[in-house]
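Action item from last week, closing it out:
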Amino acid sequence: MGLLTVDIGNTTIALGLFKNQRLLKVWRIETVFNCRRLRSRLYSLARQIQKRGPALEGIVICSVVPQLSGAVAEGLSKFFKVNVFLIGRDIKVPLINRYRNPRHVGQDRLVGGFAASKLYGTPARRLNRMAGGPLIVIDFGTAITFDVVSRKKEYLGGIIIPGIRLTAESLWKKTALLPKVRIKAPKELIGRDTKESILSGIFYGYGALCDGLIDRIARGFPSKPKIILTGGYSRIMRKFIDQKIHCVDENLIFKGMNLLFKSKKFSLQTP
């Protein structure tokens, strides 16, 4: 049996298909706010997923766009004839949430923190014998988020910064002379034309920002944190960060949804 995991973001909607613990494939479509157009695109994608198989046991959705959650859930449930489980409503992320108002944390940030703690954190049986540092999960999405999870599986909070594409588009839209650039790694630090200068500023600038913030966060803990990179630009950004990176896992949120589903305490009755 398979599981379809869906990440509804502000820029893209991504669908990851699992068979047991193995992620078979990820599909992405642009996030659109017209429900009719969105359902049409989802059905086209769903037909591809259905052809690939396996038969689905359920669907798990993590959304940061509440106005689209219902349309996506309803459309996929009708097509695949299985139950849809929404993170935060049907499935609670089992982290101790230390946010001042726990409801204000994006579910994607909690899922990423949970997945990182399960896959890359210090095992519970070793906590008494070694200090074990916290985890810092850096997600390079529409926004860049830093999320800190303690060795005791507590979500401590984080940092939010405008993302790479958002920054590039802001420069293009809000200035008279700066051009639109295609997001790619710069050739050198000192750009020799305007586009290269923008790319250098974005990638080397964000790399230096990550290095500095990791240092500042680490000062608050007795042990050095493990750094986990995820999100669409994580692999390219890895080249511009000097800090030691424990791992790059672009599919961390899908793995988190799969882990949560496998440890579920709820019914699997089909509609």
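Closing note: The chain has seven helices and eleven strands.
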